[in-house]
Structures are given as C-alpha cells and as structure tokens.
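Reopening this one. Same input as before:
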Amino acid sequence: MKEPRETVPVFFTIDDGYAPLLGVALYSMLQNASKDYQYEVFVIYMELSKENREKLAALKTEQCNIHFIKMKEKLHSIQDRMGSRLRADYFTLTIYFRLFIPDMFPGFDKGIYLDSDIVVPGDISELYREELKDTLLGAVIDPVIAKVPELTRHARLCVGVDSHKYFNSGVLLMNLKELRKARLGERFLELHDKYHFDAIAPDQDYLNAMCKGRVTYISAVWDAMPSEDKAKIVNPKLVHYNLFSKPWYYDGVQYEEYFWPYAEASGYLPEILNMKKGHTKQDKQADSEHMALLISRGNVTGDGEVTFRSVFNEGIEARL
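Same output, byte for byte:
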C-alpha cells in the first residue's frame, strides 16, 4: 500500500472579475507541481457564478481537489473609503479574506495564500517546504515600496516598518497554527474598527504592522513582480503581475512571456483577450492617474496623529 501523500493547502480569494486569471494561475500551478504531494485548493469568494465555479472546477487533477467556499464573515464595518481601496482605485472586500483563513480552516497548520494575478512556472511544493519555525508568515520584500521614496516614507512613518522589510501580501506562506493563536482575524477587525488607519495597501499594511518581527523573508523568485527599472529575475518560480503591470491589459509587460502560454491552455483565453481589447485609452489614463495618486499619498499618510506606527511603537496596542 502506498503511503498517503502530504497535503499542501493553497488558498485564493476572488470574485467573478478575476475568475479567468485564477484559471491561468491554477493551470500553471498544477502543470508544474510535484506529484509527490496532494493539493487541496480552496477558492474563497463572495460572488462567483455557477458557470465560473464549474469551469474552474474542471481544472482539478488526480492530485488536486478544488473547493469553493462562500465567505460568511461579516465585514460590514469595512466601508469604501480611500484607505480601504486597492491600488487607490477600487474597493473590494476580497482583499481582506486572507486574514480569516487561519480560523476558517482549523484543520491545517500551514498553508499558502496566493493572489490570482500570477503564474507559477515553479513547483509550488517547494514554497510549502520553506521553514517558518515560530514566525507567522513567509513573504517576499515588496520592491516597489523599497524603491519609490514616497512609498518608502509611507512604510516608515505610517506602517512603522523599514521599507527593506516591508513585504508583499500577494504571496504568503502562512503559519496557520500560530496565526490562530495570535487571533489574526479578530485583531484585524478590532484594530480596523477602532482606528480606521489610513492605509495605501489595505490588507498589506495591516499585515506588515501586526506581524512585524515575526516574518520569514523568502527569495524573490517566489514573488517576481514586473518593474521597468529593475532587471528581470532569472527563472522565477512565481510571477506576480502586481499593481497595474498586467499583460492582459498592456503589451511589453515584464515577464509577459510566462503568462500567455498558460493563458492559451487554461480555457479562459477568449475572456482574457476580451479583457485586453476592452481596456480602453480612458482606462489606461485612469491607471496612470491612480498610480500617481497612490504614490502621492505616501507623502501624507504618516502625518496623522494615529498611525500604525504610533499605535504599535508607543505600546498602545500589541503586535501579534
């Protein structure tokens, strides 16, 4: 009798708009995942059509089951305001769902959270095998925060984290057992409802502030993000089309050569091509304006009397 394979849980949080991109992400991940493991993929959603659920479910393999979990956590206190918007341009509750994964899945002590705007040319089980010890998260330093002076200022003065230790929350190796002990979801809601911090990257700022000092920094090959003024990472294991650098909207995006072969084979190519065709000049102009707004906000977010830095560094609140 064969020994049962170790299970690798992988979590995504999406809505209908991102279903085609999740199809690409899932297809790429499963094409390259080691067959020594069993994969359990959990898609957490608030609104996801039956058609998209069925289409995504069809990507399952002998070694991967795909589960769909409707988000039941009541997040009514999180309202649409600038400090709650992703990329300073739109509001969605799905970015917060990752904070509740530890409590939603008590049967797992460790797991991987992934954004859907990715492709995975590497073996995802290698990320799972990264050692966390008693740290809460494994994550990659966010190069945008480290290179843009206004965002560096935001990390230092508002979040209270050195820009070279500020991580991207789109790829997380989660110590679910320790995060449950630390009451991640509860603490987030307590802090959010009490302070309504002025965040630039809402879930990401909270995670950086709350988890400071308990993060394992992993190689950038696991969260390679396009950058116009930074050399490409050789042989990335996961490519993350962060912020506005998305090949389904723009030509010439760094690492785009990793995206299109998987898009063509995912079953979602027509939808993705329609997304690109439908991204108008006005949309592109809006992207530029929102990126400029995001950067400019870094000059003011640290000026308030109540910031992540003041609350945590002065001992008013305890970190996780």
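So the earlier flakiness isn't reproducible anymore. For the record, The chain has 13 helices and nine strands.
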